[in-house]
Amino acid sequence: MKIEEDIFKTYIPNEDKLLKYGFIKEKGQYKYSVYIMDNTFKVDIIIENDRVYGKIYDLEAQSEYTNFRVKDITGEFALSVKEEYQSILKDIRKNCFEKNYFIYNQSNRLTSYIIKNYHVLPEFLWEKDPGFGVFRNPQSSKWFGIIMNIDKSKLIPSKKGEVEVINLKVDTSLKGKYIYPAYHMNKKSWVSIILDDSLTDKEIIPLINISYELSEENDTWIIPANPKYFDCIKYIEALPIFSWKQPKKISMNSIVYIYLSAPYSAILYKCKVIELDLYNEPNNPIMNLKLIKKYDPKKYNFDKLKTYGLNSVRSARRIPKKLSKELNKE
User: Fold this and answer.
1) Nearest-angstrom CA–CA distance, 316 and 257
2) What is the number of structural domains in the chain?
3) Which residue range forms the structural domain that includes residue 150?
4) Distance between CA 110 and CA 196 in Å, rounded?
5) Is residue 54 a contact partner of residue 41, using CB atoms and an 8 Å limit?
6) Structure pTM?
7) pLDDT digits (tens, 9 = 90+) for 269-300
8) Nearest CA among 139, 278, 164 for reference residue 218
9) Cα–Cα distances in Å, from 142 out to 113, 120, 185, 256, 288?
10) Quick one: 81 and 125 in the same domain?
11) Of the candidates 41, 70, 99, which is a domain's last residue?
């Protein structure tokens, strides 16, 4: 791997910071020059399409100096040049670049999608594999994805070179062009996809959603509402999506049944959580619910709920598994 690729592997340039540092923009390139080794060598740095290139010129010999790029340097002078060059690159990285989670643009775009839609950040669990980022369902703690940088030969024996892949838990009958049996995971239930835009984001995102859904545990809630103090029916039925006070530990895509107390004393609505933690109020968060179904008050009245082990509905709570199974048949 080139020196530049190694140092800037998961970093992207910030244009304002480059210009402030001293880079000059010309025809889509950012150029910067500095003298080293008592002004006997000149370093030229070029950044184009977010990639960093560099050359060192021996001013006395009037030619490019490349000895510092030798894989196993033995000469003390060449090693000194390399160390000074690396120091320059690291200073540019510190002052002009921003850290990305992963190497490939597609990897970072899909990570942004996961963060936005599922409120999940990648976890980097292994020192020996610092580029491996795990995505874990916060409700079940189960993995639903992992992005890894591996050699392409792990998936395609005839090919070589570093690539980033995402492993997803989906129907493995999807295996085909650009979708491979999973690297380092159960090939009966996981697949690997190379994140080089061979498949578009629009093609991969539905697979991420499927994998997330498969990582969910049964997370079904019942939430009480009192029609004596608030016109719940008018509010819920006015729009297909409505806001509600968010219980602790509820998760994205949880199913919520809204129970209205007397005179109904029954479950009237089935909903789904589609947004969490609205309005940036950590002590009083709000969620958005999507109305899925309305029930006749006689169908799941309190007497029937008691036969499934639900003996009170005083506050938001998870529904007993037996009742959850019955409700989810609907």
Assistant:
1) 10
2) 3
3) 105-214
4) 12
5) no
6) 0.56
7) 999 999 998 876 667 889 999 999 999 999 99
8) 139
9) 19, 12, 14, 21, 24
10) no
11) 99
